[in-house]
Amino acid sequence: MKKLIRLSKSCISNLEKKAVERVLSKEHLGMGDEVQVFEKKLKKMLNRPVVCVNSGTAALHLALQACGIGAGDEVLVPSITYVSSFQSISATGAKAIPCDVNENNLIINLKDSEKRLTKKTKAIMPVHFSGSVGELDELYKFAKKNNLRVIEDAAHAFGTTYKKKVIGSFGDITCFSFDGIKNITSGEGGCLVTNDKKIIQSSKDARLLGVINDTEKRFSAQRSWDFDVKRQGWRYHMSNINAAIGIAQLKRFKLLTKQRQNSCKYYDSLFKKQNKIMIFKRNYDLEVPHIYVVKINKMKNRNNLRKKLIKLGIQTGVHYFPNHKLSKYKLNTRKKLKVTDKIYKKLLTLPLHPDISKNDIKRVVNSLSKVLL
Fold this sequence. Notes:
Aspartate Aminotransferase, domain 2, seven-stranded mixed beta sheet, Aspartate Aminotransferase, domain 1
């Protein structure tokens, strides 16, 4: 049995292990000074205020809530995304409106989105699929024209640059995920980034059950005992353990980035030699890819294909099953999503993580080509 080539995995070093041991030795595991340091380092990288939370989903939820989005409101979001994007919207009481994507990059289609606008539409949530962001300038023009808040779901795109600016360093609100397999991990975690002071303060309080100004107390290893709560809050704060892992990952980020980019470039070079598997054109000098997705036009049965590959020791994934086909959200669809309905059946995600080798990639490509014969 050949070794299993995993679809994705956490890639950690002794640096992360020592960071966790250091926090454990302090015996202050909850939110404290490590979270404060992590936020400061992220702020230095992105040149904007940062609020760290326990997941990317929590970041999206807090961003929406801080924008005042709730019951009766609608948010435009591409159907091809993980359900977390949709759940963060419905968690506020608002309605997630599934939108179609562009066939060439799987990014939200603005012409389709325009058809789904109503008087209830309050925001648009672009999803930076696989690390690609599409034409962000056009999206922001669309949002300005229609008086929409923009909440970027950048869970896949930490480190990606657009017109020489790193994602998160500009725009309205950007949310990242730091879960176990993302471009950097904190074990579990995420953050939101914005220049909007009201959004920052609201999110700081809301991550700690709405306790006003509790963040400052936590950072100094104290608790608020005599406090007030004015708005709905959640237990969304990040722990010192998670922050310590994230700080260590930031130190290794250039290396982790290069490994991801080089792996995708190598995949592309191998797939260009055949015509059954279509690649999405990406600029991996600018994008930091979270996943590597291909399109197989003549794919007859994806489940059988994946079973054959796992027998060969290769894990694959599907990014994503469209949300407008889920029971909870299918009634939110007003018009057909023609591209999404056609393309999602042809998508296959191949192994990608910083520890994958060229030999692994060659084996994946050869095995996939062989199975498709």
